Amino acid sequence: MATSEIISTGNQGLDTILRGGLPANRLYLLEGAPGSGKTTLALQFLRAGVQRGEKALYITLSETREELDVVAASHGWDLNEFDVFELNSADGVLGEGREQSILHPWEMELSGTIKLIQQEVERVQPCRVVFDSLSEMRLLAQDPLRYRRQVLALKQFFAGRRTTVLLVDDLTGARDAGGDTHLHSLCHGVITLERLTLDFGAARRRLQVQKLRGIDFVAGYHDFAIRRGGLDIYPRLIAADHHASFVGDPVPSGVTALDSLLNGGPLRGTSTLLTGPAGTGKTTIALQYLHAACERGECATIYEFDERIGTLVARARAFNLDLQKHLDSGCLSIQQVDPAELSPGEFAARVRREVEERGIRMLAIDSLNGYLAAMPQEQQLILQIHELLSYLSQKGVVTFLINPQQGLLGTMATNLNVSYVADAVVMLRFFEADGRLRKAISVLKNRAGQHEDAIRELRIDTHGVRVGDPLVAFRGVLTGTPEYSGARSPLMEDR
Q: Please, what are the domains in the chain?
């Protein structure tokens, strides 16, 4: 069985989704609403051909060359790299006398337009062609049946010419014309771009390969962004494709009593959820582990959704954790994340770069509330987190998830049920004793092995993180505000 040559689309992310690229010498449909990025992706497709020494042709029925020049210039590209055939004025091309014909003007316009396109293709002999856009042909055809015949005629015209054709459709009037289903069945592959407007923040864009004959492509939605240089497409993360061998040994924090809660520390390739009300020390405990990792020479990354980087470094310094030296050495990276501007797909791509390019061994997400803001649909968020944690587990990365609970005192609640996706859950609480507000720490579960079931006091001060002896005289632990009624001796004092 003959196999077709695979050619690059000019976009690395899309090539990954397509498992290498598009089969050459076929007809493809690129569809999407105005503003979704079709023209930019089409230009990338032609430029990839030019870089291979191929002739390329851009046929525009909707935009003028000046408008295309503006798009190309915004990405630093030059339209002179390939041929551009402009058909924006029927009067200039077909003449004004067509109005006096006994035939309908649209019949002459459509037939004449198709003929001129064929003549230009014969002259240039391109290997890649972009036809932008089908909505203009649909408008000229008037009749759905005639429109379908002309598209089929175009396909037959290009057949046997060793030309890869990209038909661009902005979906204007597609349903009224009945052309959508026909086009999908007619083309060898269909790529759909979408632009979504959220209630707040930047517009989100996503891509889906609806079909591609003979290729086992990555199905589903893939986030992307339009930036200078083209489309940044982030293929959907599939954890099973990224397994790496590692030893699942415990990872210490440098605080023996803290490590003993998890029988020596969290294992490599596991995720730990730190949950509790604001102010109980969740971020500081994560920083303790990250600082210890950097002291061992392991690279680590913090994704900070809530707190400013400067504030985080200053607070860590107050608790005897010098993060600045590790930032300066490049061992530690703190990345400020704006959830209003970042899609979950781009965030997953950032994490992959940290793991595969920097080789990080530990990662912290602070906090999941900020991550939730990046994707309001909770069910999809759970799936995204699950796949991301599975990927990090496959790579042997120790992950800390910080999940603030709502409220400060009383029964605590969370707007995101992620405890089941984490391998270990560490609970922090306030409690009252001797007229002072103190903190308690306990481990609720640890899939990776044994863990303490005791409740211990937690102190975070200028001496760093300290964990006290088990507190055996508690009342109301499950209320969210446990009270300690035992002797003073087990409680830690200031040093």
A: 6-236 (3.40.50.300), 241-484 (3.40.50.300)
